[in-house]
């Protein structure tokens, strides 16, 4: 890594939002990281600059053909005032995998990590101190070429913006009700489900709307082919504990490989808890429930870390899981992961990266 | 329709591109139509303004979650110097159907048509006179709210931009070679295939890349579930003439309903040519080919109108259709449709709208 990252400091510092009650996704720090791509130069001019609007031609490809990918990770402040990132190299790896699917040129993952650390150093005051709060990091790439011909762009911009966020669980962890979506499809083999790309997300709003109307907080997605096999929950991966064994859908070509998911699998293996990645039918989960063997269910993702499922609804069939309480294993996973992320528990896995 | 559309004239007129050789999608006229949406006001402030860049926050939802839809249609100059649109109300209808799928608020379709006519009046010099050239119209909507929370936006912008385009067939119509894609999937039932939304298009680049590498010009898409049934060709609908009968995939929840497709079906019915919309397996087409009954195949869309298929390749199985020549029916459809569009043939169907 030889490239230097220029820093232009902002002279107009914004007030920080009230730490007790930060709405997700609305506040952004004073600086951002930007890097451009052209066919001739490749990725060039990595720089940290004041947070500012983007100006693009109306014909910029991002507005027409969806060539864009993103990531989401967090920086945490430890009790002894250090700042930690959680497995950030996995996010840049995944960003490049997403880009590959969407025909976007790969970035230098090491440079991206160096840049992120530098950006957070510049913005260290924006990493909240209040327990449960954190600094959400949003790397993203957009196709900027002004051309509505249907072909991959020859110019892109890679950016990282930072947003302080409140605790996902301000009132303690409450298991949520989930609604099985059997009409809308999130992703299908051969599609873009394995990539974190914009089109997957807006496409999911209709199903979320329906879940909300019916009084559930999120959607359980089934496979797009047979509508029988479990894929994800909202925008989280999903795990079930059945008769002492933990199962989660395998990486089948349509689900996203979560960093939280991979960390949980590693933790469970380390703890000697049986954990299996395989195809899981919804029917199988109902049968385990009927036999009294469905012990816990939870979603996993950067935002919530662990989101216990208290109820699962599939038309006439309804399950109340673990009496709508957070399970013992879910709790242990949550405490361990958040403990490592915030530096309260020793990081035996070398997952955290100090800024 | 009572709303007035304000017009701000550009003082800086651009030169027009050389009519003999206009690259698709790179040139834009001097003005554009813009209209904003907010939750409080609904769609407001419809206006024609000088063509100019868009400025958005880096957190604008369009950059993250893909809430965007678009359309594509053309304005044609007739030999007696009138300007015609081809079934533009169908495009605004489809825009709203796409928006519905992507949780974008509907626009007033009548207002959009009035606005488009007014915009083209202002830009009438941009409608090319050279035979085969036309003015491509790109209406699109983007989510503008600066918020990375995963939820439908509360602000949007609707725009229409105009791009002069050259003839699709500068060297006469040549049937193309098509490659059957059996790994990547364009769309699946319950997904977004019926909507003209950005995410569908970037997702198709990988397959197009592979087709190009193998020497074919476009991809034939199969259904996402069984990978057996024919859906579309590139970004066109597809028709086959088998033993005197014309067949085309039915509107099955994953293909886009093309305006060219619907016009062709209406023409054929009017001509007394049997035309059937139904599920079509690729196997069936090969069998018809083996029996010597596959007479013609063609894609249909606004850009090419009719694109005859001269070769269809599916791994080891290869078909050369109609001796790589344009079929009689394809030719008649092409001549009739382009004749109506450009005012050279009487429009008995009331399809054209004069500006
Ligand atoms: C579709 C989808 N699945 C799963 C996840 C969970 O991934 P991670 O644990 O890396 O946050 C996310 C969120 O990033 C997601 O968008
Ligand atoms: C996916 C797809 N299918 C088919 C079509 C053809 O539609 P139309 O005839 O309205 O141009 C288009 C182009 O608009 C398209 O994008």
Structural description of this entry:
The structure is a homodimer of 355-residue chains. With 355 residues, chain A is α+β, with helices and mostly antiparallel strands. Chain A has two domains: 6-165, D-amino Acid Aminotransferase, Chain A, domain 1 (2-Layer Sandwich), CATH 3.30.470; 176-341, D-amino Acid Aminotransferase, Chain A, domain 2. The first copy, chain A, has eight helices and 19 strands. The first copy, chain A, has helices at residues 62-65, 88-101, 109-122, 199-202, 205-213, 259-271, 282-290, 328-341; strands spanning 6-7, 31-38, 42-50, 54-56, 68-70, 73-77, 83-86, 134-143, 155-165, 176-181, 218-222, 230-233, 237-242, 245-249, 275-278, 294-301, 305-314, 317-320, 352-354. In chain A, the strands form two sheets. In chain A, strands 1, 2, 3, 5, 6, 7, 8, 9 and 19 form a nine-stranded mixed beta sheet that branches. In chain A, a hairpin with a 2-residue loop joins β13 (237-242) and β14 (245-249). In chain A, α2 crosses α3. In chain A, 51% of the residues are buried. The mean pLDDT of chain A is 96. β4 (54-56) of chain A pairs antiparallel with β4 (54-56) of chain B, so a sheet runs across the interface. The complex binds pyridoxal-5'-phosphate (2 copies). Residues 72, 196, 232, 235-237, 256, 258-261, 300-302 of chain B line the site of one pyridoxal-5'-phosphate (PLP). Chains A, B: Belongs to the class-IV pyridoxal-phosphate-dependent aminotransferase family. Chains A, B: This is Branched-chain-amino-acid aminotransferase. Chains A, B: It comes from Halalkalibacter alkalisediminis. Chains A, B: Keywords: Amino-acid biosynthesis, Aminotransferase, Branched-chain amino acid biosynthesis, Pyridoxal phosphate, Transferase.
